[in-house]
Amino acid sequence: MKSVLQTCSLTKKYGKEKAVNKVSLNIEKGDIYGLIGKNGAGKTTIMKMICGLASQSQGDIKLFGSSDLKKGRKRIGATIEQPALYPNMTAKENLIYYNKLLGITDYSNAQEILSLVGLEDTGKKKTKSFSMGMKQRLSIAISLIGNPDFLILDEPTNGLDPLGIKQIRELLLKLNYENEITILISSHILGELDKIATRYGVIKNGELIDELSAYELEKSCEKCISLVVNDSEKAVSIIKNIIKSNDYEVLENGVINIYDFLDIPEEINKALVENSVLVSNLTLKNNDIESYFIKMMGED
């Protein structure tokens, strides 16, 4: 896959304090990359540095495989900390205004973009009368001016009701699938990202503590019997040939997760012990995604 964004040891200092510390992200073409972390973790600062709205103290950024950031940033659309919407203008007038700011003199794209985000029927309605969800979609519409290949969205579902969140989610999936736009989206609520994100970066206190695929996250949260044994190789042979499990995972330090046969933990333990495998721990794990995130953040 082609690289859209690479950061290497990206760091931002304010005085002696590091708001972002040695963050190395990798985003490939077609990704919907969820940047997840608590409020104040450094997500917005990372996005600002990528977009050129803040300078990095250390580290490197590559866009579309190149260090020519001026050229690469022309292919980015971004909504960071909510762009100003002019309350006495219509959605189309707002788009035309931002076209002018970017030096675009052909405004024929305005109606097309409004249709793309589902605001084509707002007509003469002023944005001061828009719902929060409509305002968020208009903000995304503004970021689509210039037909970007890479969209950066800072907490676009923040403050929305469940319907508004669903509408934004469907819009982002449409932009990704139909318009082939790679997306970087931040949130402090993992449950808002897990229905759309293909990859994740987890930020804690300005540091990237994990980067994983949606499949890896799903596996981490999947219900399983987790064993700690003294002989992984022998245990695997028993799990395959005696228990007949086809869905297991061998980890470090003697940990084995079994994803089938969840209703017979006693028999699994008995089979291992009878074949001279010491089981020092056996637990039934059932993490949901929010619980996994809380654990990653080191919270109770």
Quick description:
The protein is α/β, with parallel strands linked by helices and 300 residues long.
List keywords for this structure.
single chain; 300 residues; alpha/beta; Rossmann fold; Alpha-Beta Plaits; 2 domains; six-stranded mixed β-sheet; 10 helices; 32% helix; elongated
What does the secondary structure layout of this molecule look like, with pairings?
Elements (H helix, E strand, L loop, with lengths): L2 E12 L2 E7 L2 E3 L3 E5 L6 H9 L6 E6 L5 H5 L2 E4 L11 H11 L7 H8 L15 H12 L6 E5 L7 H16 L4 E6 L11 E6 L2 E7 H8 L2 E6 L2 H10 L6 E3 L4 E4 L6 H10 L4 E7 L3 H8 L4
Parallel strand pairs: 4-8, 4-9, 6-7, 7-8
Antiparallel strand pairs: 1-2, 1-3, 1-5, 9-10, 11-13, 11-14, 12-13
Can you describe what's shown?
This protein is 32% helix and 27% strand. By secondary structure, the chain is α/β, with parallel strands linked by helices. The chain has two domains: 3-218, P-loop containing nucleotide triphosphate hydrolases (Rossmann fold, 3-Layer(aba) Sandwich); 222-297, 2-Layer Sandwich (Alpha-Beta Plaits). α6 (162-177) links the parallel β7 and β8. α5 runs parallel beside α6 (162-177). The longest helix is centred in the middle third of the chain and has 16 residues, at 162-177. One of its GO terms (molecular function) is ATP binding. Residues 5-230 form the ABC transporter domain. InterPro entries: AAA+_ATPase, ABC_transporter-like_ATP-bd, P-loop_NTPase.
